[in-house]
Amino acid sequence: MTTIPKPRQPILKTSLPGPKTAAIMERDSKHLSTSYMRPYPFVPDHGEGVWLTDVDGNTMLDFFAGIAVSTTGHAHPHVVKAVQEQITKFAHVCLTDYPQEITTSLAERLIAHVEKPGEKWRAFFGNSGAEAVEAAVKLARNHTGRTHIISTLGSFHGRTYGAITLTGSKTKYKRGFGPLLPGVSHVPYPNPFRPPLGSDAQFCGDAVLDHIKLLFTTVIPADEVAAIIIEPMQGEGGYIIPPMGFLKKLRGLCDQHGILLIFDEVQSGMGRTGKMFSFQQFEEYGGVQPDIITIAKGIASGMPISAMLAKESVMTWPVGSHGSTFGGNPVAAAAAHATLDLLEGVVKHPGCGSDLMTNAAQVGDYILSELRQMQTEFPFLGDVRGKGLFIGMEFVKPDGSPDGKLRDAASMAMFERGLLNLDCGESVIRISPPLTLTREEAQTGLEIMREALRGLGE
Ligand SMILES: Cc1ncc(COP(=O)(O)O)c(C=O)c1O
């Protein structure tokens, strides 16, 4: 089906940025929105698998996959073929008004990954993560007849007005944009490495639950809360995994008060952690089932489509109350099917010898164990954590406080050696490569990291 890119090193033909990159960046800085960030000078030209080549011919190893989006790597032949086939049939009709088999079957496939015996789920399709979150919040309010939504600090849910109100990671996203959506509160996220509310790693989940209970008796009537929205594993906030058992207890609290539980799987879902959805990682600890799930990013290997899945008993909004012109676009849906084929192993990715979820779990375990070794050499790596190919490395000062400056220097040093990476949280680098990453490619990336970190002290 495809030629497998051989494990290789980044190829740096010019100093960075090369002349063509510099010229485009100059034009970009003059004509595009002033809100765009440019963490380092990189202008892609084409990609293959986990490799991206810039306009100057420099080939870089991609350890961030366009923020956890390029699930199957760049230009995967199976995805390309699916897109080409669909676009020659029709590119748009409008799902809000007309059913299309490709989205019907996509809904069925996604739902099959969450439905438990005795349950029925339904799907709504949008174009972006923020739209899936907006849909979830609108549905939760419409279904419960309640207004209040509880979110978490450190969270990221998108940049539309509703989603940005829920987002709790950085004030820069909110400054100057108010007034935001009324009826939204934030509670701490149970971060075992930096336990909130004076708790410790083991009991930080209980401390957060006690805090919510306190809010229910003091400032937020529980019977006015429509939903609690949470990332089962927090992305933008620092790639944080909550303590085992926390989500199940949160589910219990929601049930006690008739509150819907929304899991935002936009970043952590679609096989990235080694299971289809990150909340399914907690199954061996009694499991937890949300009422609503939001999905985007990795769903279609870069084509824009998102989904909001909800239990049938919850999806009660009336005909015509919500929709989208482009949402559930058939070409993007074709890419989502092809992505699912590779995630589920219906179609084998030649480089892995297994389905991509299993590959993510195995290669992720390898990277984590190597990073833990690296911690002994580099004491400023305060924490390495993650599941599958959802991995964070946190940089700390000698007193244990976050070292954002060192993280920034490390990120740039890795880029200069040909490793595309991205920050998150206060002092974390996230490792979120395509799920096609082989062990050999992972090793190449780890060697670059080691070299970059060694260079930091010089
Ligand atoms: C957990 C989570 N939810 C929602 C979003 C918003 O997605 P989008 O940028 O596609 O609107 C993001 C984006 O980073 C995210 O990480």
Task: Describe what you observe in this structure.
- The protein has 458 residues and is of the alpha/beta class.
- Helices cover 34% and strands 16% of the residues.
- The chain folds into 2 domains: 83-344, Aspartate Aminotransferase, domain 2; 352-458, Alpha-Beta Complex (Aspartate Aminotransferase, domain 1).
- The chain contains 12 helices and 15 strands.
- A 7-stranded mixed sheet has the order 4-10-9-8-7-5-6, sandwiched between helices. It has a 4-stranded mixed sheet with strand order 1-2-3-13. It has a 4-stranded antiparallel sheet with strand order 11-12-15-14.
- It is globular and about 60 Å long.
- The model has no long low-confidence stretch (mean pLDDT 96).
- Pyridoxal-5'-phosphate binds next to helix 5.
- Keywords: Aminotransferase, Pyridoxal phosphate, Transferase.
- Belongs to the class-III pyridoxal-phosphate-dependent aminotransferase family.
- Its cofactor is pyridoxal 5'-phosphate.
* Number of self-contained structural domains: 2
Structural class: alpha/beta
Q: What integer is the average pLDDT? A: 96
Distance between the termini: 46 Å
Number of strands: 15
Biggest sheet strand order reads 4-10-9-8-7-5-6
Q: What string, H for helix and E for strand, traces the elements in order?
A: HEEEHHHEHEHEHEHEEEHHEEHEEEH
Which of globular, elongated, flat, extended, rod-shaped describes the shape?
Answer: globular
- Strand residues, percent: 15-25%
- Give every kind of bound small molecule, once each: pyridoxal-5'-phosphate
Low-confidence stretches: none
Main beta sheet: 7 strands, mixed
Range of helix content? 25-40%
Rg, alpha carbons: 22 Å
* Corresponding CATH architecture of the largest domain: 3-Layer(aba) Sandwich
Assigned CATH class of the largest domain: Alpha Beta
Which fold name corresponds to the CATH topology of the largest domain?
Aspartate Aminotransferase, domain 2
**CATH homologous superfamily caption of the largest domain:** Type I PLP-dependent aspartate aminotransferase-like (Major domain)
Query: DSSP helix count?
Result: 12
